[in-house]
Design brief:
13 helices; globular; single chain; 22 strands; seven-stranded mixed β-sheet; about 525 residues; about 25% strand
Length: about 525
């Protein structure tokens, strides 16, 4: 007999040996010897002074709890099977390829960037030498932007696919089983590269192909059917089904599609800044503590939202105990993002604070760019940040209170951003559409989290790659409505917003591509 129960453990009891068994026995009213259990979910309730750990347990009465997962990944030898071509090897492309293995089709992955080991050199070059490699950076290369991120796995896209299946696949490829339990699971940027490498090795082991330094620059289309892919080195590949999983920063793909008169749509998105606090400040607010947080508690996170003049201002990609990183994909631009190691033990907490931009109403001066108006707006703000930062990867920044009060910062707080910060009047440099709403938003956030609004925090610009400003349309079969054989996928197509949702969309597109053969 199996029963699911909820138990609450106060912080002072957390970590005591046998505490969950004792709590479960009391809840069920049966002796501890009569059952075993498995933890299904763990979360923290820190809303009040007394902090609780909430557990969901599967209790096996008079039987033994299973030790292993019930998931089984039936990867088949596809070395001689029909091919499915996949452009891009981020989360959408990786899980599209894995699903092809299960369905008995050969994934042929084309990735513009380098494998995860060689990619590290280019990451180092951005941070230390301010050199941006357009094909190998924090966004492009094996694993996509997800490899060098917090590895946050929380998603609201519960109707788009089997979330647990994606988590189990990650565990199968080396992630800790803790991600199956935590309410807000994450992996950590230090562990993601090995997991990504293991996924690649699975694809190769079963007969798939992964080609790095392989950039797609053109398509040949005949009678509305995608027939050929042309690579930067001049090679041509005959194709029948192509999953386009290039990510939201692959602007060359959007330009290519527009050039080929392939239908695109402008899409609303969000832009803003990244704010960085000492982690201890966020811990003290969220955990009601003075000084260091209890060692049983993880670095505290937060989620904030406020409506300002009919537009949402909200936190995005919050990284407790993390780093701000340079996420530019071309020279002449500054873009910031965040990541965290698995232990989230850095001294700083950072988060994007962004403003919703309605692409049909908010940027009329960019109408001349048609469906790419949002993309051009992004680019202009990234170039502005580059100039304000001193024309390197040094980022323009301001103390949070100075930003809100419209004062130039004479000096800045310490930062995790390795290329460095330069004091700049972001309050006047950012368009009113964004800047005025951010200033109001920060004031309101300070009311919701006492201590958040502080001169000890820096505002760093610009956070511009929250989502794609372009949508590549597709029909109910997930195929482009005009071009047969083309399956837009993941964040680049406008159909995902993170690692898990992109992975689920990759699986769906693989199933759709196979069904169309």
């Amino acid at each position: 007999m199996i029963r699911n129960i909820q138990v609450r453990v106060p912080l002072e009891e957390e970590g005591q040996e046998g505490i969950l068994m004792s709590k479960a026995a009391k809840t069920l009213g049966i002796p501890e010897v009569d059952f075993t259990f498995k933890v299904l979910r763990k979360s923290i309730d820190a809303r009040k002074q007394t902090i609780y750990f909430n557990y969901k347990l599967a209790v096996y009465i008079r039987e033994k709890a299973p030790e292993n997962s019930t998931y089984f990944f039936d990867y088949k030898d596809v070395s001689k099977a029909k091919p499915i071509h996949i452009i891009g090897f981020g989360p959408a492309g990786m899980w599209a390829a894995l699903r092809c293995l299960e369905l008995g089709f050969k994934p042929i992955v084309l990735e513009r960037g380098k494998n995860v080991q060689n990619r590290r050199r280019d990451i180092k070059a951005i941070n230390q030498d301010h050199i941006v490699n357009e094909d190998s950076n924090y966004c492009f290369g094996e694993g996509g932007a997800g490899t060098y991120s917090d590895g946050k796995l929380y998603t609201r896209s519960l109707k788009r696919g089997d979330v647990k299946r994606i988590f189990e696949s990650l565990v199968h490829h080396g992630a800790t089983e803790q991600i199956l339990i935590d309410a807000h699971p994450h992996i950590g940027t230090n562990k993601l590269p090995k997991i990504v490498q293991n996924i690649r090795e699975t694809i190769l082991k079963y007969g798939g192909e992964v080609h790095f330094n392989t950039k797609v620059i053109d398509f040949i289309i005949e009678r509305n059917q995608l027939k050929t892919i042309i690579l930067q080195n001049g090679d041509e590949m005959q194709v029948s089904r192509v999953i386009l999983a290039t990510g939201h920063s692959a602007r060359d793909i959007f330009y290519l599609l527009q050039k080929k008169d392939i239908a695109l749509k402008a899409k609303s998105f969000a832009m803003g800044v990244r704010v960085e606090h000492p982690q201890q400040i966020i811990d003290s607010i969220q955990y009601h503590c003075q000084g260091e947080r209890n060692e049983l508690l993880p670095a505290a996170a937060y989620s904030l939202v406020h409506q300002v003049k009919n537009r949402g201002v909200y936190s995005f990609c919050m990284c407790p105990g993390g780093f701000i990183v340079p996420a530019a994909t071309s020279p002449g631009e500054v873009v910031v993002n965040g990541m965290s190691p698995s232990k989230r033990n850095n001294l700083f907490a950072n988060s994007g604070i962004v403003v919703e931009i309605n692409v049909e109403e908010d940027i009329p001066k960019y109408e001349k760019y048609g469906v790419l108006k949002g993309l051009e707006y992004q680019k202009d703000l990234e170039r502005l940040a580059f100039t304000a930062g001193g024309r390197t990867q040094t980022a323009p920044a301001q103390r949070l209170t100075d930003f809100v009060e419209g004062i130039f910062s004479k000096d800045l707080n310490p930062t995790s951003y390795q290329p460095g910060l330069k004091s700049a009047p972001l309050h006047s440099l950012l368009p009113r559409l964004i800047g005025s709403r951010l200033r109001t938003g920060f004031n309101e956030f300070g009311k919701k989290m006492k201590g958040y609004y502080t001169s000890e925090a820096n505002v760093v610009g610009v956070e511009s790659r929250t989502s794609s400003p372009v949508n590549i349309p597709r029909n109910q079969q997930l195929e482009h409505p005009e071009i047969k054989g083309l399956f837009p996928c993941g964040e680049g197509g406008g159909y995902a917003g993170g690692i898990v949702s992109a992975a689920m969309d990759g699986e769906r597109c693989a199933e759709a591509a196979v069904a169309a053969l």
